[in-house]
Structures are given as C-alpha cells and as structure tokens.
Amino acid sequence: MRQKSRYLIFIPIFIMALFLGACGKAGKSVSFSGEEPKPIIYCPLDHVELEEMPVRPIIVTIGNSPGARPQSGISDADILYEIPAEGGVSRYLAVFYHGQADKIGPVRSARPYLIDIAREYQGVYIHAGGSNDAITYLAKNVIPYINQINHSSGFWRDKSRKAPHNLYTSSDNLVQELTAKKWWQKKEVQAFSFAEDVSLPQKTQGDIEVSYLSSKVRYTYDTEKECYWRYIGKEKCIDENSQEQLAVSNIIVQKVKSKVLDQEGRLSIDLVGSGEAYFFTKGGFTACTWQKDDLNSRTVYLLADGSEITLTPGKTWIQIIDQNTNLQYEIVAEQAEQKDHKNGL
C-alpha cells in the first residue's frame, strides 16, 4: 500500500513537470492574466522610446544673439530650428514634445515665418511680443499661443542677465498655463521616418559650416559616438542648464528666399512650396528637396526618387538658410569637391 501511495503522488507531479516544461520552451513566458503585451511607443520626432505618447508639442521662440547665449533648455527639445532674422542674427525655434526642461529661454518675439513652422506640429506657440505682421497673424487664431506681453503668468526674469535676453519659462509652468486655458489636449503629430542603419551615398570630411551674417554655426562629426558636436564660431554650443555641449544626430539644411520688409530689417520668408535641401547624418550626405503643400502641412524632405529621407534616431537641427547664408561642406570622393553655397549659387 505504501508503494502504491508513492506512485500516486509521483504521477501528478510528473505530469505537472511536463506541463511546465512545455510552457517554458523557447524561453517564452506564459501569462494567464489575459492581458495583451504593451506595445512599444516611439516619439514621432526623435524616435525615443516612451512609456506613453505626449499630449501635444510646445514650440518656443528662443533668442540667439550674443547676449542670449548660452541658451537654456535647448538640449531637451525634440527638434530645433535656426532661422535668419533681422540684423543678420538668427533665432531658434525649439519644439518640445516629450522633452521637458526646468528653464527654457531666453524667450523672444514672434515673426510670421516662426508661426508658419509652429503650425506644422499641432502645438502651442510661446513668444514675447512680435512684429506687427506677426501679431496681426496670430490674431487670426491660426494657432493657440501665449504672448508673455499680455500673459506674464508662467514666466520670470533672470536678474543675472540683461533685457531682453532674460525672460524664461519652464515645461511645468507652460503645461499649467495650457491646462488652465484648456489647450492641453491630445493632438496627433505626423512622424518622421527613422532607422538605426541610415547610410547616405556620399561621405563628408571636415566640418559642416552654416554662416549667417552675424554668426557661424559649425558641426564636427564624432565617428566614435556617431553624432555631430555643435559650435558657434570657435565656442562650444552648450545648454546653460546642463553646461554640456549640444550633440545632434541629424542636420537638415533648408534653402529659402528672404526679402527685407522694413527699416528694421525684418524679413519675409516663404516656407510654402519647394526648394533645395541638404541632409547630413552618420558622417554621410545627400542632396534632397523640401516640400510644404500648405501652411498646416509638415515640411517633408524628399530624395530624388520622391521618397522621404530617413533620419537617425536622436536630435535633429533644421538650419533654414537664405541667399545671404553660406553653407560649406566637403565631400569625400575620388576627387574631393568643396561645396560652397552662397548668394543662391
């Protein structure tokens, strides 16, 4: 009887072992909860893996004259633009989607073409004052916006800096203001294409230089880290918050035409239509074209076959240049050729 009892105990244990062994094949775990595996979510603007999709972008105008440097929060933006402005200086437009910063600025004034770019992202535009044309444009309610001049809540002045380069805000402050205005609502953002193994047909050597009238932006490629380090002149371009130099995965140079509007040197820049563009990533280069169908469409960058360019995951700087901006880069080839795009050439 004792021997029979041992067999009776052994048989169910043996069956259970077989069952568990079968469940463990190929290293797969079995869930009996009935829950579907959580899908992987990537930011559509830089392809960073996220736990959940952000609500909507916040787009901030940031100064770039010498008194505005170093800027704060720019390393936390998903995408950054640099655009010609009056007096030969350039201005930044920082797109924050999943990126957040405790200090963003210095916040500067609006221009119509900055608003045009902000409209692409279904976001909320942040600025402090603006040209007459920009204020008239915003009054048409083409995009939700906060103008610090008549809405000071959420902004502060940094006493260590001189006006107008001392106005700042933060991601938390802006979310609070947008929530109060009932603008903090989910919006769908059109995604860029990304891949880890992007390979462009030509390779560059040396620096990539984008020379606005009053400043020269320089990118140096780091083959080990597979990123471009950003400089302004001979100085490292740093984020004041972290004191670290800015690194970027992709550089897009978009060529446009500008026209001086007034004695202040304010510009008109038409961003609808199409034109030449240049794409740099992982030490490679290709010429392409930009295309924007209307003011609410995202600008797309197209290869010769009509397909959209594929970005390397990470930060992207979009350098918008006009006929007064000089772009220089050097291609590695059997006979290396120096490219100098100046005055529309």
The pLDDT mean sits at 89
Question: Could you describe the largest sheet, including whether it forms a barrel?
Answer: 17 strands, mixed
Q: What fold name goes in the CATH topology slot of the largest domain?
A: YerB-like fold
> Under the CATH scheme, which class of the largest domain?
Alpha Beta
Shape by Cα distribution? globular
Helix/strand-derived class? mainly beta
Total domain count: 2
Helix content: 10-25%
Strand content: 35-45%
Q: pLDDT below 50 for ≥5 consecutive residues: which ranges?
A: 1-31
- CATH architecture grouping of the largest domain: 3-Layer(bba) Sandwich
Number of strands: 27
Number of helices: 4
Q: What does the radius of gyration come to? A: 26 Å
- Tell me the distance between the termini: 100 Å
CATH superfamily of the largest domain: YerB-like
Keywords:
single chain, disordered N terminus, 4 helices, 2 domains, YerB-like fold, 345 residues
Textual characterization of the structure:
The chain is mainly beta and 345 residues long. It folds into two domains: 42-180, YerB-like (YerB-like fold); 193-341, YerB-like (YerB-like fold), CATH 3.50.90. The chain has four helices and 27 strands. It has helices at residues 2-23, 112-119, 132-138, 171-180, and strands spanning 41-42, 49-50, 58-62, 79-84, 90-96, 124-127, 145-147, 156-157, 167-168, 193-194, 202-212, 215-222, 227-232, 235-236, 238-239, 244-245, 247-248, 250-255, 258-260, 267-269, 273-281, 284-292, 300-302, 310-311, 316-321, 326-332, 337-341. The strands form six sheets. It has a 17-stranded mixed sheet that branches. The protein has a two-stranded antiparallel ribbon with strand order 1-2. It has a two-stranded antiparallel ribbon with strand order 8-9. The longest helix is centred in the first third of the chain and has 22 residues, at 2-23. The radius of gyration is 26 Å and the shape is globular. The termini are far apart. Mean pLDDT is 89; it is low at 1-31.
